[in-house]
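Reproducibility note. Readers wishing to regenerate the assembly model reported in the main text can use the exact inputs given here. Chain order matters: entities are listed in the order in which they were concatenated for prediction.
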Amino acid sequence: MIRIENLHKSFGELEVLKGVSARIAPGETVCLIGSSGSGKTTLLRCLNLLEMPDSGEIWIGGQRITDPKVKKTDVRRETGMVFQHFNLFPHMTVIRNIMIAPIKVRGVSDGEALDIARHFLDKVGLSEKADNYPRQLSGGQQQRVAIARALAMKPQVMLFDEATSALDPEMTGEVIKVMKDLSGEGMTMVVVTHEMGFAREASNRIIFMADGAVAEFDAPGVIFNRPSNPATAAFLRSVIRM
Amino acid sequence: MVNWSLIWTEIPNLARGAGWTLFITFFSLMFGVAIGLCLAMLRLSRRWWLRLPASVYVEAVRGTPMLVQILLIWFGVFPMLGLNRAEAYYAGIAALALNSGAYLCEIFRGGIQSIDKGQREAALSLGMTETQVMAHVILPQALANALPAIGNEFVTLIKDSSLVSSIAVAELTYRAMLVAARRYEYFTMYIGIAIMYFAMTFATSRILARLEARLRKGSK
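Running the prediction on these inputs yields the following structure tokens for the assembly.
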């Protein structure tokens, strides 16, 4: 589904990705963990070309998205992204937030977009909030709307960039639940997270990133119980103590 | 001091002048908004050869007197374009619009830049083109934020429009100048129109403040 080959990315002098390679199978949920500055968010943002890698290749669903001839908009409509700060459009109602991309990008009719939006809003359990504005919703609700907005484009892959980091602790659960459901339905997901519980329970495999490279890429049982890389063990000790 | 009977008899004349003042102000603002938006887009472009001319234009307009701009357009640019038979108020509106466009450009540019970059990224990540992001996500928010500043610009333009009297546009100030000179009643006429200008700007800013309050309540 996703193939990453020797990806490099620098911001000025700072080399953030130093030759990342990985393969992710269809339907797999892969968590990206690691300390801040390890390059996990940058790697995720390369997958929908919000960042252009300096070198290396990425294939998604057989398409080489790093091909300069490929249109970025074509790549992005197949990859949904959920952000740390939700980034809902504040001037639109919830239902409009979800409808806008199917209408403008996929070119579906207003009526069809409304059906799609209602379906996904129902899926995240917020049907009754359709006509509210984002600021009238709690953080957890806003993030669920953001997930519905991304799903409405019917992407092949969903990318989550610390989707629960900005939420109050009592609201992370509702978002995690939606993500787990999605994972259970076989959506291919790449999830940057600090939620070790989610990584352990919901992911098929975990990438531990350190210093711009993949330090370890294995099943959660292996990563959490018998990490082969001492850096992984040190990182897990530091986060799990919290 | 004030010759009230003169003011009384001149009311129809001055009212027509005030009507012209508002007419000129309104159209100048409309064109000014359009010009300002275009300039803001150019100034925010990634291409230097689009940014540069817009920046030069904005600096030139803001660095020269509006009176000179009005004279230049009516006596210099219009004849050059062969618009010898055009009405003077066309030149007045053109000058005011070109002038306020430069100021509005900066207002819009600030408004666009103040929108969180996460908005752009979210829209891009859904597959929107840069143009769609601007049209559906950034501009609606930026314009809503800029509404109070656009209202201020309207008030400023009401006052600045008096300068087009210099090219004999029959707005409020020009009519007062004619009557004052004919009747030697300078104090009466100028205090009279000062009060009228104040009434227009005060009423406008009150109405705008109320609209703004309602808009803010509606969006909460």
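We highlight two features of this model. The radius of gyration of chain B is 21 Å. Chain B touches chain A at residues 116, 118-119, 121-129, 132, 136-137, 140-141, 144, 219-220 (CB under 8 Å).
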